[in-house]
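The methods section describes the discrete structure representation at length, but only in general terms. An entry of this sort, consisting of the sequence and the corresponding backbone structure tokens, reads as follows:
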Amino acid sequence: MAPVQETAGTTMDHQTASLHAGPDGQITPIPDANRQGALLVLVAAVLWGTTGAAQVLAPSEASALGIATARLCTGGLILLAWALASRGTVGMAACWTRSTWALTVVGVGSVAAYQALFFSAVRSTGVTTGTLIAIGCAPLITGLLGLAIKERLTRVWALGTAMTVAGLALLSVPGGAVLVRLSGVLYALAAAAAYSTYTVAGRMLLSRGVDGRVVVGTFFGFACLPIVALSAGDDFTWLTAWNGIGVTLWLGVGATAVPYLLWIRGLRTTAVSSATAIGLAEPLMASALGIFVLGEEATPWTLTGMAAIVAGLAVVGRAGTDAGEPATRQ
């Protein structure tokens, strides 16, 4: 799905079209806009779900940090170039005003940290466990952070999130090819916190009128700087191999640039609590690829867990349209 083109004059029109004034004068989202936003977040999550499987195809000498750096630099520079081409330097400066620069710094740092921590978790404790923990813990963390920006946590959201987390737990029941290492678990938990942090920072910048393309372009473009510094001295000769080039292009374009453009557009009308719960489609996709593409064992627990995640995602998506999420904007 191609990102919708916007101009400086139409950005606010799109935002206004997805909102309406309630009887108390507050502005709330129109349900159809919420459904569209949830769908965009879902498609993004499915594309993210290919990340772990793609990493398996990279040359064996590629380190976790090296893969994270290659992915972020490729996708981040594409997003930055897209933002500059569509909004120009004046538009990009919106992330560095007195009221937004702190959120921008937090977002940039969190994006860089997530990439390094996620790939380290996957390398340490496996694709399945690393992805399940990193993404599975994010809804709870983001939901709590969402309270800080006055977003409501509804009972329906809690039910849907509980169903998806239960499904994730079933995916990790012994009997399949699941590997658990403490170091990997800690990396994954830290990755979940980083993911939740930049999700909330992005949502707050959107609520302050910053264009979505500017947000992702700034977050991911400037996040290249710290991660390149971290990977200094790493061996990148694997990038000369055909599978190294192919994996880097897919991770940068198909699993970063495209899904994050969809994600930030969907986040405009989707509460961060719902967005991260919908993001649990990522480990679902990762598990499906493991079973049907990589030939991993599918146990009854695995299939039941996948069904529970699908059901939970449906409930969370419904919550985002019926419960008045995201929080009202003044």
